[in-house]
């Protein structure tokens, strides 16, 4: 009996992320250096790990409520107020999720219906489109290449004029994966001033908010809280990818609906991880600062090196990625370029096509690796380009 053709038809329209596929494809190359995945190379701070040990010893091994433990929701709202000046009620305006990925899925599956459209600035992280597809909605990409990957109010206006009432939501991701671009206060306010004129959801994925290198991060929820479903988490800020703790912040009227989907996806986040999150958000509020300084040094080094090799790079001011245009005269098919680079020099970086057709001809480098590794990696890329 073959049931493989009887799945939900939408499942056949999605695939495993090209990022993961490529990472696995090159993993067995001898001596490979992988600058592929978006994962901090730092370990979770010791004081956070201790709080998890204490939670285990104190038998915090049972379900929490669907929205998460009261103390972690209080800590999360405290963190957001102190860091970014946005205020939420811990009892009704925040959900603890299984990472930002589940937060994205729960949010999109809660709001989307067949035929809806979702605006997204491109290039963009590839984790949104499959969920949109599963909901039988349609992504609409706004090409930001002409403005060095910065979304403008005019671009939004043009997309709304074209797609009109079919648009249910816009997804923002800043600092951006894959470009590292982010927005200053004036730019965020200008985008908010346009979006408040439309009755659409604003899903703002701000998971890299603690990793900005010039200006302080500004959340769009500061300007249009009634429209904003704000997503954040501890994976990038506190090097806690494996702990799987994310958050959804929003008005009670929105959170009250999203929690239904959240419940049936996961019931609740790990109680042990939630207890660790309390320590991260309060005592460890500034844990990202030391990591950020190291990332800044790495960014400057990789940016300088890649530029010297002839790549055109929009200087990133957030996250931990370099997004570089392959120089003229080299293979412009980014997958072929990266496969050949890996085979010839044992260095793996992500082909731009993983982030959509607007990203073809580019590559993404994660500089979440120590400086010695990055120097070796840059030597190998330099040798290849010669």
TrEMBL record:
Report the InterPro entries cross-referenced here.
Aminotransferase_I/II_large, AspAT/PAT-like, NHTrfase_class1_PyrdxlP-BS, PyrdxlP-dep_Trfase, PyrdxlP-dep_Trfase_major, PyrdxlP-dep_Trfase_small
What keywords were assigned to this record?
Answer: Aminotransferase, Pyridoxal phosphate, Transferase
What cofactors are annotated for this protein? pyridoxal 5'-phosphate
EC id: 2.6.1.-
Listed GO molecular functions?
A: pyridoxal phosphate binding; transaminase activity
Listed SUPFAM superfamilies: PLP-dependent transferases (SSF53383)
GO annotation terms (biological process): amino acid metabolic process
Residue ranges of domain Aminotransferase class I/classII large in the record: 32-381
Query: Does the keyword ATP-binding feature in the UniProt annotation?
Result: no
Against CDD domains, the record matches this protein to:
AAT_like
Instruction: Spell out the family assignment given in the record's similarity comment.
Output: Belongs to the class-I pyridoxal-phosphate-dependent aminotransferase family.
Q: Per its UniProt record, what NCBIfam families does this chain match?
A: PRK07309.1 (NF005588)
Name the UniProt record assigns to this protein: Aminotransferase
Organism of origin is Enterococcus quebecensis
Q: What is the lineage of its organism?
A: Bacteria, Bacillati, Bacillota, Bacilli, Lactobacillales
């Amino acid at each position: 009996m073959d049931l493989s053709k009887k799945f939900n038809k939408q499942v056949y329209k999605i695939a495993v992320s090209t990022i993961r596929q490529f990472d696995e494809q090159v993993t067995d190359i001898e001596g490979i250096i992988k600058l592929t995945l978006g994962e901090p190379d730092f370990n979770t701070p010791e004081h956070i790990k201790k709080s998890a040990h204490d939670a285990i010893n104190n038998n915090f091994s049972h379900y929490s409520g669907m929205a998460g433990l009261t103390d972690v929701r209080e800590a999360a709202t405290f963190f957001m107020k102190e860091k970014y000046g946005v205020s939420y009620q811990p009892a009704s305006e925040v959900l603890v999720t299984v990472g930002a990925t589940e937060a994205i899925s729960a949010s999109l599956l809660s709001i989307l219906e067949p035929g809806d459209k979702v605006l997204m600035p491109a290039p963009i992280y590839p984790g949104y489109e499959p969920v949109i597809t599963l909901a039988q909605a349609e992504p609409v990409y706004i090409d930001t290449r002409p403005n060095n990957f910065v979304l403008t109010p005019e671009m939004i206006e043009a997309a709304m004029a074209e797609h009109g009432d079919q648009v249910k939501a816009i997804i923002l991701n800043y600092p951006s994966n894959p470009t590292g671009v982010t927005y200053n206060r004036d730019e965020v306010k200008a985008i908010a001033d346009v979006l408040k004129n439309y009755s659409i959801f604003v899903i703002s994925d701000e998971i890299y908010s603690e990793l900005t290198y010039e200006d302080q991060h500004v959340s769009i929820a500061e300007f249009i809280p009634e429209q904003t479903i704000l997503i954040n988490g501890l994976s990038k800020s506190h090097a806690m990818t494996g702990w799987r703790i994310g958050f959804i912040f929003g008005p009670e009227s929105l959170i009250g609906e999203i929690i239904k989907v959240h419940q049936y996806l996961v019931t609740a986040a790990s109680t042990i991880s939630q207890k660790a999150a309390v320590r991260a958000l309060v005592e460890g509020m500034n844990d990202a600062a030391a990591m950020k300084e190291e990332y800044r040094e790495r960014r400057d080094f990789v940016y300088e090196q890649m530029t010297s090799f002839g790549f055109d790079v929009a200087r990133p001011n957030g996250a931990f990625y370099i997004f570089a245009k392959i120089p003229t005269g080299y293979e412009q098919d980014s997958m072929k370029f990266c496969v050949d680079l890996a085979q010839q020099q044992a260095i793996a970086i992500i082909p731009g096509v993983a982030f959509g057709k607007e990203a073809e001809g580019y590559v993404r480098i994660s500089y979440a690796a120590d400086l010695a590794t990055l120097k070796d990696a840059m030597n190998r890329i330099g040798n290849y380009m010669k």
